[in-house]
Predict the 3D structure of the following.
Amino acid sequence: PGVILVAINPYKPLSIYEEEVIYAYSGCEIGDMDPHIFALAEEAYKQMVRFGKNQSLIISGESGAGKTVSAKYAVRYFTTVGVCLCDSSMEEKVLASSLFMEAFGNARTTKNDNSSRFGKYTKIGFSQAHVTGATIKTYLLEKSCVTFQAKAERNYHIFYQLCASATLPELQGLGLRECPHEPYGTA
């Protein structure tokens, strides 16, 4: 049994995710402060340190619900509170792969212009309560979207980006051509 947090994507940056808020939640017991992704991250962190057991945060929701952003906030919490023993840009390096993968695994849906078609499993390594590294494993969720899209949707962004770049010398041998119908522009 665990704690459940229902979060709503505000579709804009909020000050409730700043570093001073991380430190406000650090060391607090669950329920001492308002419900927050940092409260869940703190509880998982304390349980890991106190009992030496692996912990998991499961972030789930519909397209556009803010799952990727919530995961980024949790990683930021761990790299801040868990004092990263690797170089200072650990959070950026862990999350940088998301931007690259988005081009290959995101598409336009009726609910979200940049909907991820990948599930992500982020594993953060700790040694004596300090972050030592992280890996992100991705897996394709919607293979059917490679060959079919609903009328108001668009295929993976990478197909349109490649076709828009078809005239580049390095892509000449790929047999790419301009998209016959791309109603939304390139991603």
Summary: The two ends are 41 Å apart (CA to CA). Strands lie at 106-108, 115-116, 118-127, 130-140, 154-156. The helical segments are 19-25, 37-51, 67-81, 90-105, 157-164.
